[in-house]
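Lecture 7, part B: from sequences to assemblies.

Below are the input chains for today's worked example.
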Amino acid sequence: MRIEAEKTGDILIVTPMEKSIDASISADFKARMLEEIENGARRIVLDLSHVDFLDSSALGAMVSALKALGGVGSLAICGIREPVVNVFKLTRLDRVFRLYEGRSSACSVLSGNPGEEPEY
Amino acid sequence: MGKGGWTVAKKTAKKTPGRIDTPEPAFLENTPEALAASMRGHLRYTLGKSPDQVVTRDLYMALAFSVRDRLLDRQLETMERYRKAGAKRLYYLSMEFLMGRLLGNNLHGLRIWDQAREAVESLGGGLEETLEYERDAGLGNGGLGRLAACFLDSMAALDLPGFGYGIHYDYGLFKQEINNGFQREKPDTWVEEAAPLQMERMDLAHIVPLYGRIEHAQDFWGQYNPMWMDWQVVIGVPYDIPVPGYGGNTVNYLRLYKARPSQDFDIRIFNQGDYFAAVEGKIESEKISKILYPSDTFQSGRELRLIQEYFLVSCALKDIIRQFSAAHENFTLLPDKAAIQLNDTHPSLSVAELMRILVDEQWLTWETAWDITTRTIAYTNHTLLPEALEKWSVSLLEKVLPRHLQIIHEINQRFLNHLGELWPGDEDRARRMSLIEEGEDKKVRMAHLAMVGSHSVNGVSALHTELVKHTLVPDFYELSPGKFNNKTNGITPRRWLLAANPDLNDLLEEAIGPGFITDLNLLRKIEPLADDPAFCEKFLAVKKKNKEGLARVLFDSALVRVDPDSLFDIQAKRIHEYKRQLLNVLAIVDEYLALVDEGMEPPVSKTYVFAGKAAPGYRTAKNIIKLIHCVADVVNRDRKARDLIRVCFAPDYRVTLAEAMIPAADLSEQISTAGFEASGTGNMKFALNGAVTIGTLDGANIEIKDEVGEENIYIFGLLEKDIARITAEGTYRPFEIYRGHAGVRRVLNAIRDNRFCPDDPGLFAWVDRYLLSPQDRYMHLADFPDYTETRARAGQDYENRTGWAKKAILNTARMGYFSSDRTVREYSEEIWGLKPVPKP
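Predicted structure of the full complex, as structure tokens:
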């Protein structure tokens, strides 16, 4: 699975470069996310702007990442397209993840800017 | 932004450079020349045929594509008209749409029949021969599915924004073949030639989640957040079949969904390298829309059937929400813009699905969502048979639709709380009305879900509605009497008069002018002509011609030669015990024995025709088909009887066969046990085509009697209240009837003595046991004496040619009430709140 990761301050921006994250690659995706957390990432923005389709295993990987962060970190999601929003709504995960339109909003809130509320 | 108002980074739609105007080329005109030009274009560029290669199939395909062009043109205009008007829309959700052949009907709808004939002839073909090529779209079992098709026709004819939503089955109801008198089922592959009749809309596909589990979590605010995880997904791809109203000004559509594997299937094949596993997954997904389940089979517990029902509901609801959201943001407006009609309980998961969408996806409160849901959805009950009321096991629902089961439990809890406030301490009532049937294997009662989640519950004939209210679900009626209403079924005169019986249509037009085809009450104008001998002769001549046509069909399909001058007595409908084909057979045997054993000739020569399919797993129904064939064999071979009585079973009853049979009938058999037939619509089709009914006071027969007058219908048999009383008291004693009635004895003894199965003794031993059992809930023998006497009276009356013609004409004249235009108008005004949006 192709994933790009870059750091902006103490925020790690993870960008899957796949159009679809499904059962065939979600294990890789999950492993990579957990690896980043194990390596110390505590504030993560997941940029899904390249993703058209997520299946439930991909959502499961994200939930695992969120759980791995526990109370000591935060995960925000940005760049989300309509079909992907729909699966978040379907699963009610839009009440668990912070969803933002653009990277800057997501980074801003993870940086502790109190003016940025989740855009759901 | 507020809750639920997530802004989506939408893909930038590629804009087409320049502007595409609606094309108005000459080839879309309705002249014969334009149609022929259109057909030539499709022959060459759609089918890739040069003129010397063209065969009938090609002509059919080219004509169908040419007609589709015209329909799509008008459909686009209609949708734009609805959009501009901000019209409320009706979504008719049905697991079945028994459309029959479409092309001929569309030619009538667009009023281009004659032009099409000229066009086809100019290309060297014949129109009838070309139309014969089409296969029936048999996506239904019987009345329920055909009703849905008639409603679509009427909604379009009335310029109402009404749309059908169903499943695009690869295999419709099975093709029935008869082998040595036994029914054999063969697959019906209508879909192979359906391309020119429909339009795939991949752009409007939806994903449908299935299976998975609920993760009990908390949301940002610490509230309980049930998350539906680990689901699998299939894609529902819609295929639109245009539905033209008469005249073609309004063209609605029937949207049928086909299941496909999720869009990542192809990617997975290459990524995983496990080709076979991936293909197996693909086949699994596609199974969902593979076959239509025959009714009367044991469906509960069949996981695939449950998935089919949810597949329809999920696709339809997503589409409804998509259409609504295109123009509105405030979901409290949904009931003002959309009405959903559930055709029986099959789509009743709609209640839970709409609640899930509103609560889970749109973040509405439960109370607001419930108000919207119950003001949007309405439910039609179609059956009084307790065994036909759907129930799904809680464990299966939990496996397939875990979130929906949670929602159903929540609906039920609130409903039971409400009952507790109204009737404190009445636990019996709560148990009877609960959405959940308690027991070892708990079940969800789908009819209860539909009733609780709807603002309207209707029956389909006056009697049926009363029985729904007072017998089937009296507790629910007591709780919400205002919800319950009657909408007596109807039939579309475009299909069942204009298309099926063009000669009668022409005669009526010649007599009273046009207009009745869209206002069937105008047929009353022919009443005075029932006393006009010249008109009677013309009416009988049309009937004779139709009988000659059916005689050819019967010879071709069943190898039985029949006399068009004999009385055609027809029973055509699904084979079912309550419809009592068996009673008809007994009466035929009675007449046969009277003739050959006692020399009592019937007053007129008679041809008895049966047609209908038995569900593949319904053994008694299949045994009845065998019995009919064996009786037919004996009677038709007996030299003493064959000129006076003929019996024929026409195989593979379907809409197209009905169109040949119904116009040819003199007597229409509607003989169900009173209280069992919800309405019937065959009864209306036969009567409209000038057949006189012999029937019980059941379903819509009662209203037919009220309309045509007692002197123009043959009514016999026990009343519903008699049947109910005898059943309740347990006082049905068929053996006493057997002992006391010589005719019954003679018939049963002959069957028992293997008179109709000399080479296979004991084959019909079941008949005796069945009919003499007090457990025969359809009480065949109780009605036998009255039935045979009434049949004899009808036979005597038939001898009087003009007297019979008068009855037949008055039946036709007085069928206005049974137009589905009337039914749909009532639904529209009293349930849906729809307004016509005619072309200016």
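Note for the exam: Residues 56-85 of chain B form the longest helix (30 residues). Keep this in mind when comparing with the next example.
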